[in-house]
Write a structure and sequence with these properties.
Blueprint: E1 2-6, E2 12-16, E3 23-24, E4 28-32, E5 39-44, E6 56-62, E7 66-67, H1 77-88, E8 97-98, E9 105-109, E10 115-118, E11 123-125, E12 129-133, E13 139-143, E14 149-154, E15 159-161, E16 164-165, H2 170-181, E17 193-194, E18 199-203, E19 208-211, E20 214-215, E21 219-223, E22 229-232, E23 235-241, E24 248-258, E25 261-272, E26 281-284, E27 289-292, H3 298-301, E28 314-321, E29 328-335, E30 344-350, E31 355-361, E32 366-370, E33 381-388, H4 400-405, E34 407-411, E35 414-415, E36 419-423, E37 435-438, E38 450-458, H5 466-470, E39 487-489, E40 499-500, E41 509-512, E42 519-520
Parallel strand pairs: 1-7, 8-14, 9-15, 18-25
Antiparallel strand pairs: 1-2, 2-3, 4-5, 5-6, 9-10, 10-11, 12-13, 13-14, 15-16, 17-20, 19-23, 21-24, 22-23, 24-25, 26-38, 26-42, 27-37, 27-41, 28-33, 28-38, 29-30, 29-37, 30-31, 31-32, 32-36, 33-34, 34-35, 38-39, 40-41
């Protein structure tokens, strides 16, 4: 707690329980914070040169932290601010006293080693007062700068430091007092110790609010503060901001300093992406589908000729839950609007036997691979990965076996054996996108009460990274993999009807013939 006490002489106010020094009369004013009515700010009116840029001695402190001189709490921030302003601005005080032969004074350093305490109730900041030898053989106590006298005619015999009488010689006594007032009278003492946490965790987009705590700290220095983070006006111990920081670790150096030494520490600001949570998927009923700009996938799924190798490879990953409907249903389609003659990539769910079928090419010229029965068991979430190594896919009968090996299919993390067929020895031409859809072929073959979740596409062959993608069957943040997908749709998480966001690329899906109710909580 912070007890607010004006000294007996009425020339300064103290905040007992803090490391702040005593403040001269008519120096401070307190106001209720404009953003939080339960907190108050204490402004140094002497140091403030611009009303729009006040200098704070205390900033955004809950009013409940303050007490009056008797230790009583305040009922509101307004009451606390009014009391502090009154105590800090006593109009009748001159702050000058002439002492008699019966007056004695003891001076000592407070526990924070920042303030000189006097036995009459006064207190003064280090280096704010000085002792001088008076012509009458006595000692005068003056402000450190200027000739304003605070105490005059203090008898040497009536003066002590921490209960021990000063030297009887006037000049020596003055030197002893000034050594105390300037805090130079001892070679020993306690250097600061930083006690606040040196690791600070922050989620991307959130704002930092960190305050350095150091035992015996008087002054503070910061370095290596990242852009967007700054110290608070009036409270150099506090840093705020950071909502612009990308995920990573930022090492900030700080020093706490006092008259005996310093302590330094590295504050590790660890910024992490929000924790992954998979709570949504998209449900498809008869006539429902998602469509996006297919041209945006050309760099990932397209090719210019008959497969030039790894530069034209790709990988598709998603979770799928089928239904008991026995018809052939399109899961994924990318390619030409002319399905008869134009090339496309089609993934089809054959509900009659719960198979997955991959067709690459046109309806006339294609490579086709089909899983065995029950590969995609109805009403069961299954993880599917299809990879293409970018090699040739047609049009020689003698090379068919090589064409088939260009593709691999993994279900629940394991490669599955495929039945291979072809049309006119495969597809040897280019592939580009006019249609990109989930749940629809050209004009039909819709999904019927099926679900898709966590769809990702890489522009490379990721068949060697299946264990990382599948993650033992636990859905996870695919954007954290290396390499990251070129496109990634969470399929409901973070989405708002009627757009399903591509969280890495810009190929956002539009929901056709669907409603907000088709973003559901059924997930793997």
């Amino acid at each position: 707690m912070i007890k607010v006490i004006r000294n007996r002489a009425g020339n300064c106010v103290n905040f007992v329980g803090t490391t702040n020094p005593a403040y001269w009369n008519a120096c401070l004013s307190a106001v209720v914070d404009t953003e939080d009515s339960n907190r108050i700010n204490i402004i140094n009116d002497l140091r403030t040169t611009d009303v729009n840029d006040p200098v704070y001695e205390f900033y955004k402190i809950p009013f409940t932290e303050f007490q009056d001189r008797d230790g009583s709490a305040f009922a509101s921030a307004v009451e606390a601010a009014t009391y502090i302003t009154q105590e800090a601005n006593v109009a009748s005080s001159t702050g000058q006293f002439v002492l008699s032969s019966s007056d004695s004074m003891n001076f000592e350093l407070d526990s924070t080693e920042t303030t000189i305490l006097v036995n009459n109730g006064d207190s003064f900041a280090i280096n704010s007062i000085r002792a001088v030898a008076g012509d009458d053989g006595h000692i005068d106590i003056l402000q450190h700068t200027g000739d304003l006298s605070i105490f005059e005619a203090l008898r040497v015999a009536n003066t002590s430091i921490e209960g021990v009488a000063v030297n009887a010689d006037q000049a020596t006594a003055v030197n002893e007092l000034n050594a105390l007032f300037q805090h130079t009278g001892s070679a020993s003492g306690s250097a600061p110790t930083i006690t606040s946490a040196t690791t600070v965790n922050l989620t991307t987009g959130d704002t930092l609010n960190y305050e350095l705590v150091a035992t015996n700290g008087v002054a503070y220095e910061w370095s290596n503060i990242p852009s967007g983070v700054a110290t608070v006006d009036g409270n150099v111990r506090k840093i705020i901001g950071g909502s612009n920081l990308a995920a990573g670790t930022y090492n900030i150096t700080v020093k706490a300093i006092n008259y005996f030494g310093e302590d330094s520490a590295t504050i590790s600001l660890v910024v992490a992406n929000p924790p992954y949570s998979n709570t949504k998927s998209v449900r498809f009923s008869n006539g429902d589908y998602l469509g996006a700009n297919a041209a945006l996938l050309d760099a990932t799924l397209g090719r210019s000729g008959n497969g030039s190798g790894a530069s034209e490879a790709w990988t598709i990953s998603f979770w799928f839950k089928g239904s008991t409907d026995t018809s052939g249903q399109t899961i994924f389609y990318y390619g030409s609007a002319d399905t008869t003659n134009g090339a496309h990539i089609e993934l089809r769910y054959t509900g009659s036997n719960d198979r997955l079928r991959l067709r690459y090419g046109s309806n006339n010229n294609y490579i086709q691979l089909v899983t065995g029965d029950n590969a995609l068991a109805a009403n069961t979430w299954k993880h599917v990965v299809i990879s293409y190594d970018g090699g040739t896919t047609g049009a020689s009968s003698g090379s068919l076996s090589s064409y088939y090996t260009r593709f691999k299919v993994f279900i629940d993390g394991s490669q599955v054996t495929m039945s291979n067929t072809h049309g006119n020895y495969g597809w040897s031409g280019s592939v580009s996108g006019q249609n990109f859809r989930l749940g629809r072929f050209s004009s039909g073959n819709y999904l019927k009460t099926c679900f898709i979740d966590e769809l990702a596409i890489w522009g490379s062959d990721q068949s060697s990274n299946i264990s990382s993608i599948y993650n033992s069957g636990a859905a996870h943040d695919l954007s954290q993999l290396s390499p990251t997908p070129a496109h990634y749709w969470r399929m409901g998480d973070g989405d708002t009807y009627s757009i399903i966001q591509d969280t890495i690329g810009t190929a956002h899906f539009v929901m056709y013939n669907m409603t907000a109710a088709d973003i559901v909580t059924d997930t793997p």
